Amino acid sequence: MNKIIYLASLSLLTCISASAQQSTPDSTATLKDQTLDNVTVTARAATVRTLAGAINGKDILRDELFKAACCNLGESFVNNPSVDVNYSDATTGARQVKLLGLSGTYVQMLTENLPNFRGAALPYGLGYVPGSWMKSLQVSKGNSSVKNGYEAMTGQINVEYVKPEDPTGVSVNLYGNTMGKFEANADGNIHINGNKNLSTELLAHFENNWSKHDGNGDGFQDDPQVRQYNLQNRWYWKTGNYMLHAGLSLLKEDRMSGQVNHHHSMTAGLAPYRINIGTDRYEAYMKHAVILNPEHGTNMALMGNVSMHKQNASYGIKQYDVNEKNAYASLIFETNFTPEHNLSAGLSLNYDYLHQNLSLPVGAIPSNYGNLYPLVGGIESETTPGAYVQYTYNVNGKFIAMAGLRVDHSNVYGTFVTPRFHLKWVPASFLTIRLSAGKGYRSPHALAENNYLMASGRRLIVDKLNQESAWNYGTSLAFLIPVGQKTLKLNAEYYYTHFLSQTIVDYDTNPQELHITNLDGKSYSHTFQIDASYPLFRGLELTAAYRYNLVKATYNGQLMWKPLQSRYKGLLTASYKTPLGLWQFDATVALNGGGRMPEPYTLASGNLSWDRNYKAYGQLNAQITRYFHHFSVYIGGENLTNFKQKNPIVGYQNPWDNGFEPTMIYGPIQGAMGYVGIRLNLGKRM
């Protein structure tokens, strides 16, 4: 199969080169042209731009996303120096975002400013948003606006989909890689009766990974087989001062992993260790907006979404089933008293319901397996109404102060208050200063959010958990420095997160146990980052970044480095587009610093089960894109340095033993991977 894909890639590039002289670039994808009396003025659109306002963040556009394969949301941060995406274990394919040195549970995930992918959807939600569906991403750091709730502790990631009201057309994306994965994506919209005020859109996605690849020879798949069907229908209607956005989506996914060569289990007279996770997810959303006074920007909006997430999962002989329902609604009023003064106020309601069960079938426990898991089941339900007010003082964008306050009441945790403050100051044309401070909260769902831990052979112990809360403080400096005829963009930032209450996954105290418990002591994160970008010459943009993470928490009474967290990261990206826009070359080099492994235990041989620390490792990703009038073709590779974590599954020889541990992952499991794809653009769709 790998040879077929390689030969197809070479043939495709040969055809591209032969037709290069007869083709023109896709202007809608690469350039913005304006023709005046036979004179064409061409301007390159920025693919990453700073978010407006006081909040520190970036707006990542489609051109930037398409510099890599970008199969889904989880693969959209290859070129981003601030966001890491890591596998949570070596068997299920669960992934998590890391921002400011902390896991994705502290990053609020939004789809078009509506909270999404909560609870059981968190471990796999990054794979639920196909890359070609995204119009842009907004990544903000630190505490965000109180409009979207109280949960953002280290930042927000907001996904904007392509819109029904965009110019009509159809887009198709086909992708295949050397690991046996195939994807097909399509999106199309129409303006009904030619009326831009009434539009609908259909988005479709299919993926299938049929390969049982085992590159390290441990008998386990390096990547799960995933078959996913994803469909979404979206509508837009505007009449007078009223606007409506609404949509429905459904997703079905089957995820299969585990042993492909189980001679060790056969020797013990046991069946192969397999993992099967079936997911059905349904969503609906609706946004109503009414403009009351256009002159003062006075408007009201009512928006909300509902979701049902049903997951049935088996990990060997363990069975975990969860049926999760979530509903969210928000009523917002906003007005500008004057051009300098803005007031926003609103009400919100969030409802979470999880019916879950974790069990072991009677009589199915091997004698050497032990009573590792207690039977767990029950219902978690929380209703949280809240209200907020936010005031913004803006002097021509040069000085912006934004202060917000929320008050929410949980039927489980009681009443809590969320203050947040952001400041932006532009003292000179070349300097922008931002400051932020605020508090965040979240309600933990131990089993749902960490269900990948059930692949471990350790005994899982879950305490009664408190609501998590943390203060976050940040500052950033952005410089625009003339160098030659061009501008060097330089950014430096520092963030400090201090937890008052936190859910801890304790790997260290007992090697026979995984203990999900409450923080008893200190926990904090210091993150410093500096990055710079410069257009070396026409068409070539270079970006370099360095980030240092100091993340510690208290485990068993000791303040320790957080395990499986790299202490630093260096990133260098280069992007070059030829003068006519026909070819684009992108490359990213990343150096991921070393870190601490969980406390090892002593084997019968007297050796340690694993090293106490892991070393730094490098990765290289590259892609070549060829643009045509109505389509583009791309070919690339990921992890071209071929770095793989050695022995990612501890105790793979006997997965039925309590020494079986696939969740201690700090680096990639797969080696070098090649891919090829085509993007078709039929019509005027952006």
TrEMBL record:
**Mind listing the GO molecular function terms for this protein?**
siderophore uptake transmembrane transporter activity
- Where does it reside? Cell outer membrane
Q: Which domain of life is it from?
A: Bacteria
Where the record annotates domain TonB-dependent receptor-like beta-barrel, the positions are: 209-640
Alphabetized UniProt keyword annotations: Cell outer membrane, Membrane, Receptor, Signal, TonB box, Transmembrane, Transmembrane beta strand, Transport
Task: Return the Gene3D superfamilies for the record.
Answer: TonB-dependent receptor, beta-barrel domain, TonB-dependent receptor, plug domain
* Membrane topology term: Multi-pass membrane protein
Q: Which residues form the signal peptide?
A: 1-20
Show the GO cellular component annotation of the record.
cell outer membrane
What is the designated name of this protein? TonB-dependent receptor-like beta-barrel domain-containing protein
Q: Which GO terms describe its biological process?
A: siderophore transmembrane transport
Principal location listed in the UniProt entry: membrane
